[in-house]
Design brief:
mainly alpha, 2 domains, two-stranded antiparallel sheet, 12 helices, elongated, binds zinc ion, HNH domain-containing protein
Length: 285
């Protein structure tokens, strides 16, 4: 749920670059003959990603051991290899791969920066959408947990679609839709839930909740918050022991209101909840 800039490549660029590394001239020419079709598919995907309708794109469903022809005389395995070998392992393709990965800096856009991006993940799986296998706009930097947990699901309903960090609507990134609650326990803890604003369209509401649940963000945010909370409680008991409750509350607000963190960052949401929690601000902890 963190926005990142969309890759600045023409839709057919990476396909052409990866193909250029194929040594066999006949194979290279055969793959190049499909570049117009691949470009059209890419343009359609990008338009649908902006409109939130990639769920309408029909997936290729192949049985075990089957390797169907996807476009012209090119088979699925050849398009998958274009990614796995020519993009991931060969220098020209790898340059594109690395530039997409580095654009996310240290924050995985899918989980809101809990993890650091380690690899690229296909928004629509390459096994089912092989013509999109090397399209940069279908490749999203992902941390290990987000990539491992995701697998290759097929979403066929509008409300199931995961949030796309390059193209999706601003509300997912600019509005607060994750909230935290302070448990009044010893030690206290922070729990998170997805709670989009009531003004959102039902389909967007469902998409946010689905994304939140799919990537297990409640649990992963809570684990990060527990580490931070234990340090904060220690500080309240020592360095900030003599600070009046109102000043402590103002301190919590200053972090919760900080503009350096995006609206649904686990830390921002946590501090906003703490600042509003009278029990936390006033108790002896
Ligand atoms: Zn992640």
């Amino acid at each position: 749920m963190k926005r990142i800039s969309r890759p600045d490549y023409a839709p057919e660029y990476a396909y052409g670059v990866c193909i250029s590394a194929i040594v066999d001239e006949e194979e290279r020419n055969r793959m190049m003959a499909a570049i117009g079709d691949v470009r059209d598919t890419a343009v359609d995907f990008i338009e649908r990603a902006i409109a939130g309708s990639t769920f309408e794109l029909p997936p290729l469903i192949a049985g075990r051991g089957e390797d169907p022809i996807v476009v012209a005389d090119i088979r699925k395995s050849e398009l998958v290899k274009l990614y796995e070998y020519y993009m991931v392992q060969r220098p020209l393709g790898r340059k594109i791969y690395d530039s997409i990965l580095l654009a996310a800096e240290d924050n995985c856009p899918t989980c809101g920066g809990i993890g650091r991006p380690r690899s690229l993940d296909h928004y629509l799986p390459k096994a089912n959408y092989p013509k999109l296998s090397v399209l940069p706009h279908n490749l999203i930097p992902a941390c290990r947990d987000c990539n491992t947990d995701k697998g290759n699901p097929l979403f066929t309903q509008p409300h199931e679609q995961l949030i796309h960090p390059y193209f999706d609507q601003a509300c997912f990134f600019d509005q607060a839709w994750i909230i935290a609650t302070v448990t009044h326990t010893q030690p206290c803890a922070i729990t998170y839930e997805a709670s989009p604003p009531g003004a959102w369209r039902p389909v967007d509401h469902q998409r946010a909740v689905n994304h939140f649940d799919f990537f297990d963000i409640a649990k992963r945010y809570s684990i990060k918050a527990a580490e931070e909370l234990s340090v904060l409680v220690d500080q309240r008991r020592s360095l900030m022991r003599d600070l009046p409750a109102e000043s402590f509350k103002a301190y919590l607000h200053s972090i919760g209101d900080s503009s350096t963190l995006f609206p649904n960052h686990w830390r921002k949401v946590m501090y906003k909840a703490l600042a509003l929690d009278e029990w936390f601000c006033n108790s002896q902890l």
